[in-house]
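Q: What residues go here?
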């Protein structure tokens, strides 16, 4: 059965730019309230304030918090606040769209730096393990229940690597494993958990990858649609999936790439 998203509460981790921001706007356009967590500089915070005003102009509530979403302290402070704002109603959507990790090779090249243990641990914690910790805390607070949807953003890096992408690739593999385990454990509660594998999308996180120009060129040339994936494409898919109250679509990696994976 499908239902309206109007009046639902939705939490986006990584809400201030790229795919997270596009989803915040798409959900707000459906009349859904937005809770956002982001980690920005002073310049970024100014843009985020404008985003919050834009969302509120659509007639919804929007509350964004500049905090490290991978920090236990942030979760401890924000989860009770979110429970108060939502009056304890379960979230419809939890979107994990955290894209902060180390982009260094495992072995030094030409005298350059190599990945350290601390950088590996940070990348896995932010981009993968934090999904589990947020889910645990939200579930404990009663903010996940029948009809809730959890989405985690993955990428073709779950199988493909480049010289500098090893830690992020490992994080994507771990993230998808977490999705499967959470889908299993949350099924009795009627909560669906899936990973969304976006195609190559021009976002700030993509631009930090040293080899991103070649990735963009290849995807632009080979995507059956003749263009790159847009953040709005991902948001459209998430909104469509989230209208369903069923939890039967769960534990999957769902390609939102216009067929890019078929040809690259």
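A:
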């Amino acid at each position: 059965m499908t239902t309206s998203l109007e009046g639902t509460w939705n939490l986006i981790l990584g809400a201030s730019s790229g795919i997270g921001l596009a989803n915040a706007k798409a959900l707000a356009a459906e009349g859904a309230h937005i809770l956002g967590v982001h980690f920005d500089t002073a310049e970024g915070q100014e843009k985020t304030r404008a985003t919050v005003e834009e969302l509120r102009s659509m007639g919804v509530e929007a509350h964004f918090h500049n905090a490290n979403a991978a920090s236990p302290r942030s979760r401890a402070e924000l989860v009770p606040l979110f429970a108060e704002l939502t009056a304890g109603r379960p979230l419809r959507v939890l979107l994990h769209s955290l894209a902060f990790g180390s982009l260094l090779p495992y072995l030094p090249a030409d005298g350059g730096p190599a990945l350290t243990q601390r950088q590996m641990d940070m990348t896995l914690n932010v981009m993968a393990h934090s999904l589990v910790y947020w889910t645990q805390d939200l579930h404990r607070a009663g903010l996940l229940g029948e009809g809730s949807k959890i989405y985690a953003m993955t990428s073709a890096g779950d199988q493909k690597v480049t010289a500098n992408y090893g830690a992020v690739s490992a994080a994507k593999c771990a993230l998808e494993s977490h999705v499967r385990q959470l889908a299993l454990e949350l099924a009795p509660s009627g909560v669906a958990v899936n990973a969304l594998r976006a195609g190559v999308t021009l976002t700030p996180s993509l631009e930090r990858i040293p080899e991103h120009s070649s990735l963009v060129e290849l995807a632009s040339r080979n995507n059956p649609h003749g263009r790159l994936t847009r953040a709005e494409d991902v948001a459209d898919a998430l909104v469509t999936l989230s209208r369903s109250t069923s939890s039967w679509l769960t534990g999957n990696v769902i390609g939102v790439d216009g067929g890019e994976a078929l040809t690259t």
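A: Context that may help when evaluating the design: The beta strands are 9-13, 33-38, 62-66, 93-96, 149-154, 192-198, 253-256. The CA atoms of residues 28 and 57 lie 10 Å apart.
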